[in-house]
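Regression check, alpha-L-fucopyranose case 759:
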Amino acid sequence: MDQRILPLAALLLMNSVMAAPADLTLRYDQPAASWMREALPIGNGYLGAMLIGGVDTDQIQFNEESLWIGDESDTGSYQAFGDVWVRFGAAAAQPAAAVKPATATVSATPPGYRRELDLNRAVHSVGFVQAGVTHRREAFASYPARVMAFRYTADKPGALTGSVELTDSHKAVIRAAGDTLTATGSLAGFTYRGGSSKKKPGDSYALALSYAAQVRVLNEGGTVAVQGDRIVFTNVTTLTLILSAGTDFVQDRTQGWKDVAKLDQVVARQQAASARGWDALLAEHLGDYQKLFGRVSLDLGTSPAAALTTNARLQAISTTGQRDPQLETLLFQFGRYLLISSSRPGTLPANLQGKWCNTNNSPWRSDYHTNVNIQMNYWPSDVTNLSECFQPYADWIQSIREVRVTATRTELNKAGWAMRGESGLFGGCSWEWQLGAAAWLLQNSYDHYRFTGNKDYLRTHAYPAMKEVCAFWIESLITEADGSLVTPVDFSPEHGPKQAGIAFNQQWVWDLFTSTIEASEVLGVDPELRAQLTAMKARLLPPKIGSWGQLLEWRDELTNQPAGKEGTLDTPSDKHRHMSHLIGLFPGRQISLQQTPQLAEAARVSLDARGDVSTGWSTAKKINLWARLQDGDHAHKIISKLFNFVTDTGFNYVDGGGLYANLLDAAPPFQIDGNFGYTAGVCEMLLQSHLDEIHLLPALPKVWAASGSVSGLKARGGFTVDMQWADGKVTTYRITSAVPQAVLVRVNGELKKVRSEQR
Ligand code: FUC
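Current build output:
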């Protein structure tokens, strides 16, 4: 046994220290004045809500994940569902449409107001004292019950009088009956009016989903009654709302993607949850959520600022440059919170805004972007011990394979399948072809197998899709005069002219072939295909180093720039956000310091030239890239850029990346991939396992070196890793797995073979 593996007594002590939950709370002293910058998200994968915590007028803006327009030929767009308005006292006299909560509530904020999101419990709460009455309000989204629950309480009996209304974004019929509000409607006739759509106003999609939502208003004390299309409550002490919503979407092409029975379940879920009541729902929610969230703890040090409001902490970092290590930890765990809240088994994958979206023309349709964004959403799932959260992504890929095969045959006349840059719920795509993107989806997919070792999943989900995309590339690769294989003309994501042999595609084909060869061995199938892929992989045009030591993004070093573009492509002044030629370094495994040091150095030159400031998701990507180059200090320098406090709601795709007050990542605008990319980046700094060894602290920055600990991270091969460090060195570590087995561990500069412990 390795001497660094601690005796049991020490481990018990370490676990008991780690078991005390850290304070992981986002705190504010005002209601949210902006949906994007300040409202706080809750979600259960199926439903999401952004909460403003209003005092007299409370707005619950909510989403249902399958509320999509689009079809098998066009991306369409994710849609906003609607709002629940809860208005108290005089505010209840106003019609919902006239209420502007951002201004109405801020001016009325009582002193002592608190608004919090507790990540340890996934519960949102608001507290304040008004006219001598103490108010407490809580909200959570339950995955097991598939509803969201909201509770308003006052310590003075009968103190709550007001109204509840339901509004919708698509001309639904709204009815109030008894204590229940119901919205029913259809998405027929709605099209996306944002940019790069194939559709013109008035066009329709081949599919149109129907939808429904219900809000049940439950009272303790006082009365509730229907008044027009709203419900009024009078002299209530505790008001509980149960919100259920859904569409007739079913993730099955053979059923035409629809099943009308799904709409009845909206009512059934509301009734079942209402019958159980707040306490039972909350207890069930905590058990469900904490089972996942509690698996990982991280300690990067304490901050004097931890008791301040979250916006004050961001402000302090921006103005003084002072670090706030507990905020770094909070943001890490926020990424895990967001993943659990937006991606659970049986749900759809997290889109560009997770599941949170308040408009029907959201930026980039709130879609599944495949040239980096959806992939980035799933970077933290396995390594942060949330493998279950990966399942929606795998299921979505599975569900659209046939659609993609048909589109690829029809539009490109090739076998297998490929994606365009934008894609939607039903597999319809829009914008440019992005030929390497499908291989990237499958890199995530195969990596999920590498983490979990789940051969059933590999056999049924990842491997069949990998074979199909291999078929596309076997037909599409071009043989050069010297025998090398080159990918056809394509776009290096969102950058420069289209060319054959771009690094992005060459590297993704290398990755796909490598993984498919491995997978066929694991499953003991397809020896001929394996031999063919092995031979073709050896002939793939390799990555090339350019005149200033950089890795080439295009096949040739571009010297003839298009007019007006001089000096911007493939020069040290090119700051483009995508860095698509570095995917072999991260998240791929073609380029590494250990195995291809010259290419790794060229990747470093390229990455360095792109600079430290970019959009939110690109900044997060750079953390991971610097971590793979084992430069912890540079990775942390990028983290400090991500803590740029963004206080407006403008767009900036060049250098505006940062965080809003609610810790959602600002691309800008809000785009959730930056949150997930950051969480993955912190892991990549602490633990790497892509080269079939577990490397502890591969990129520990000086600012984290003094002491710290992490427990529950996952390494490929099904291992769980706990460790502590001091003065930049690992002091204790423990590696466990379902079955004890030999594993290579690189620790404090030494590579050792150890045996994992039974988990
Ligand atoms: C990528 C980026 C854009 C934007 C879009 C949603 O393609 O290049 O900046 O974030 O995704």
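Comparison notes: The first strand starts at residue 25 and ends at 28. Residues 352, 364, 369, 371, 373, 494, 615, 617, 653, 667, 671 surround alpha-L-fucopyranose (CB under 6 Å). No diff flagged against the previous build.
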